[in-house]
């Protein structure tokens, strides 16, 4: 298939592109290469993908409808995987406008062009952040109408817009809600990347709260596999992609300490109002509809991630971090 993959230079986009290419698909990747975090990391991922002749790249912002239109005029797509997003809960409070431009308007632009150009399969990346206040494990069948950050609200907007296009135009939509994705070449605004880098360099790490908060840490290659499996014709479905095995933040830190052979210098700060105390995915639906379940446990995934840092030492530890 010829697949349009947005956010291709992003963390999950990079691994999803590799999975698609390994499966024999042709991938048109787009990304605006914004500077929310160190662009060198996005350039690294993009350049790795360009080594494959079945990958083409365009620097493009999905919130720009006219630029997207030109892309659709020049290429025929069998499916769209929309991973382009402004991520990061805390920064969305500082600049909510850009989150809605990308996550909401960008998704609308893609759906409108999918309708106009006859692209009948749409995979939308969404987030476990929508489950704030729900009982765990989180299931897809309960309404999520209480987003506690502009990031989560913008993702909710994208989900319901995708449903509208399914309802009116018959576009087949898989919404995949991701749970705390980590792995090699990850995002430097997320705890796993930041903590590995800071602990290795004997720099203090900041923990919001006492570290007892838990996350359903999910390895990026498992997420990429589930995202590709979501290309299946399905109607309109929301599907959790998570590890189904939450770990406390403090335990993740201990694993990193063991792998690096160093002790973390922890600075505790007040728990952030926009954060969730815990996430835990019920993945029954993913197993039944997609035949998907995670394969990589947290210890193995962290070992792979630390090894990537050490194998790319001069580059990886120089990446600028952000909270």
From TrEMBL:
Signal peptide: none annotated. Keywords: NAD. The keyword NAD applies. SUPFAM superfamilies: NAD(P)-binding Rossmann-fold domains (SSF51735). Residues 4-304 form the NAD(P)-binding domain. It comes from the Bacteria. The keyword NAD applies. PANTHER family: EPIMERASE-RELATED. This is NAD-dependent epimerase/dehydratase. It comes from Deferribacter desulfuricans (strain DSM 14783 / JCM 11476 / NBRC 101012 / SSM1). The lineage of its organism: Bacteria, Pseudomonadati, Deferribacterota, Deferribacteres, Deferribacterales.
């Amino acid at each position: 298939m010829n697949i349009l993959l947005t956010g291709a230079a992003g963390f999950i986009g990079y691994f999803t592109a590799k999975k698609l290419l390994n499966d024999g698909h042709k991938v048109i990747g787009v990304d605006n290469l914004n500077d929310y975090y160190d662009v060198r990391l996005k350039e690294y991922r993009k350049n790795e993908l360009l080594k494959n002749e079945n990958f083409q790249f365009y620097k493009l912002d999905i919130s720009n409808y006219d630029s997207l239109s030109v892309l659709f005029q020049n290429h025929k797509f069998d499916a769209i995987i929309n991973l382009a997003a402004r991520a990061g809960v805390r920064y969305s409070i500082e600049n909510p406008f850009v989150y809605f431009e990308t996550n909401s308007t960008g998704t609308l632009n893609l759906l409108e062009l999918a309708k106009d150009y006859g692209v009948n399969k749409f995979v939308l990346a969404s987030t476990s952040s929508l489950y704030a206040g729900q009982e765990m494990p989180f299931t897809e069948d309960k309404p999520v109408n209480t987003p506690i950050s502009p990031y989560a609200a913008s993702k909710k907007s994208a989900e319901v817009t995708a449903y509208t296009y399914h309802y009116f135009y018959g576009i087949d939509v898989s919404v995949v809600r991701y749970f705390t994705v980590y792995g090699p070449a990850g995002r430097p605004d997320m705890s796993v990347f930041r903590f590995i880098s800071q602990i290795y360099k004997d720099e203090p790490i900041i923990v919001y709260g006492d570290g007892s908060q838990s996350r359903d840490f999910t390895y990026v290659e498992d997420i990429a596999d589930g995202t590709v499996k979501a290309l299946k014709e399905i109607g309109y479905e929301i599907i959790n992609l998570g590890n189904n095995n939450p770990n406390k933040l403090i335990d993740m830190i201990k694993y990193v300490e063991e792998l690096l052979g160093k002790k973390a210098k922890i600075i505790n700060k007040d728990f952030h109002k926009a954060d969730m105390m815990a996430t835990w995915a019920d993945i029954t639906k993913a197993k039944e509809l997609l035949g998907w379940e995670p394969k990589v446990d947290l210890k193995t995934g962290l070992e792979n991630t630390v090894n990537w840092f050490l194998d790319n030492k001069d580059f990886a530890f120089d990446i600028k971090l952000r909270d």
